[in-house]
Amino acid sequence: MGMKEQSFYNKVIAVLIDRMDEANSMDLATIANTLVLLKNRKVHVDGDVVRSAATAISRMCMRREIMEEMSATNSVLIMYSFAKLEIMDWELFDKLLELMKKINKENFEPHQIPLVLHVFSVFNIKKDARMPLILDYIVETAGIMTYQNIANCLVSLARLNKRRYDATEIWKIGKWKFVALVENLKEKMETIKIRELGKWKENTNLTANILWSLGKLSYNDKEFVDECLRKVAECGDIDAISYAQVFEALKEYKTRRQGNVMLSMKDEELMEHLLNKYMKIMRSSPNQIITQVAWCCSVMDFDRNKVIEESLEELSKRKLNKVEQKYVNLFEGDAKSCVTRARFSPLRKESLAVAVDSLGYIRLMDLKAQKGANHKYFEGIFMENDMNLPHLCDFAFSNTGKCVYVSSSDGYVSVSAVNMIGTHLNKDNSLLTIGETHTGGTLCVCPSPDHDFILYTGGGDGFLKMWDLRLMSSRNIYYANENDLNSKPWSKPLSSLWAHVTPLSSISLKVAKRIVTCGFNENIRIWDAQTLMPIQTIEAGPDEMGVWDLLVDDSKRKLVCVGDLGGIKTYEYESKQDKFAIKNAKKIKQNDREGYKSLQLEEEDQVLFRSWKRICQDGKNLVIPRIDNEDKVKAYIIDMNTGKMVDSLSCNGEMEPKKCNISSVDVHPDPDVGLILSGG
Predict the structure, then answer these.
(1) What's the rounded Cα separation, in Å, for the pair 17 and 20?
(2) DSSP at 574
(3) Containing structural domain, residue 376
(4) What tens digit of pLDDT does each residue of 291-340 get?
(5) β 558-563/430-434 pair status
(6) I want to staple 219 with a disulfide (CB 3.0 to 4.6 A). Which of 6, 214, 306, 453 is the partner?
(7) Is residue 201 included in any domain, yes or no?
(8) What is the pLDDT of residue 466?
(9) Does one domain contain both 377 and 493?
(10) How far is Cα 481 from Cα 474, in angstroms, rounded to an integer?
(11) Are residues 515 and 628 located together in one domain of the fold?
């Protein structure tokens, strides 16, 4: 009827909550679906009232008599409604999914099981034993599904898969089933309209987007992809969202495939044709569409019609959210991005240096040859709803200098080979990826000094984890047959230890049989490497925001840590007691005048490590970066024994101090070379 009076609905829902005990399963499904309808029609009902109603529905569903009478339709509708309301109730979902296993498949309508898969994708549920069953249901009914139903399934599978950079469990469980869905889709190709080929439709938040899904799932049938793209090219009227999604699909294919994507025409011809039409509606398009199309063109290095320049000009006139602003910063090379770690190769005869940064680049430099190469670690993704775009937090060389271990803020760790031929690091050199290592990001990586295949990681969850990379290989003895639906790669750490309440920021393995860790806003802890039992805790002190980095000097006689405000502390190691003696601790305060006093840290700055300081040792000295936008002195060289400054790193007169901040330093392993590497 179109009534949108908020107070009326608040009163009605309150009455429903009071009388929920009288409801049967059909009533509960109807109420849940009504709450979704109000949201879709933008009726601004009190959020607390909606949550209370959802809680009451969940409580009723858990009753045995309600569960016994629950039909297939009602069980799906309740789960789907909770997903649309963005209410995660795993206890309820678990009960309803178990119920679905017992219900005869014939009782489900063809469109209902795709809704369950949508629930999985909304809440990113990848590792559930019911997933194969749901995919079986979908494949068995695909022949009688509409193309909209099939496309909805593909979108959900793509959303479950899109944050992964390697083969996922979802892919292994459903590879042949995914192909079966596409085969059914091909038969219905002639009836498919452009909106199903390249568009999200906002009346249900997210509906069919075939091309986007095929691109995200790396579907390799060139003939079918070509046919889809030709249909797009032949369409005379395309809306803004469809343009964004088609360019997103092209970007996915071009970043994963060498050569031309299309068979019937050159990719550049299609993109230019689409851009010519898109530019006519660009200035009337939503922010996300403008940002997404410009980002795709940037990744594909295709800037016809000045699409990036024109997009930035239009976005400069608008109010942007955090995600949109961060993409604008990426386009403009914003000065706030920084190198989060820079290191020389550990081999004394090498002249190779590597750096990683908050823009997601891995940068290689051959200092002798004066050559460099950049690899865009995150070029294949566009994170539509992520308020913190992923960035590279740390990396480490293997002991042989032949591999690099890179960690990122979304919890991934990749192992890549360094290709000395042309000093290129590219996707062909990627050896393996460990997914979801830590909640809150993987902030530091540290390979074992004894074995390159043993890797330690620390994360935003405060955990210290040890990984055996040999078990990650597809050739290890724990790896099941690839055709086995239950097969999955080994993805668990050998050991996991909750080391700190706050994020774990740095790890050192230089003391034999010991692991030294530190945490933000907390302290330093020394652990027995064999038993993982705590041996010693060193308080960092209440006057600092936390310990950001630590190192143990080469003689293993001192432990040095640096805090957020620039303070440095040293601790003497006593071999007799096998501990770092706190009694000899000294604190070295840097004379930064107004440099630190005027520093205002925003919440996202700490997440992005823009103010991070990575220290290094230079003989008996310590090199520590400092944060000062105005001063030309960008790093101090301090004697670790006396605490006195012996030298500094400064930008020359021709350089602007604001553009020369240093966040990470390293010293060449051969002291005769005398080189210090800095990144900022």
Answers:
(1) 5
(2) E
(3) 339-461+487-498
(4) 888 888 887 878 888 888 899 899 989 998 877 877 777 776 544 567 87
(5) unpaired
(6) 214
(7) no
(8) 92
(9) yes
(10) 10
(11) no
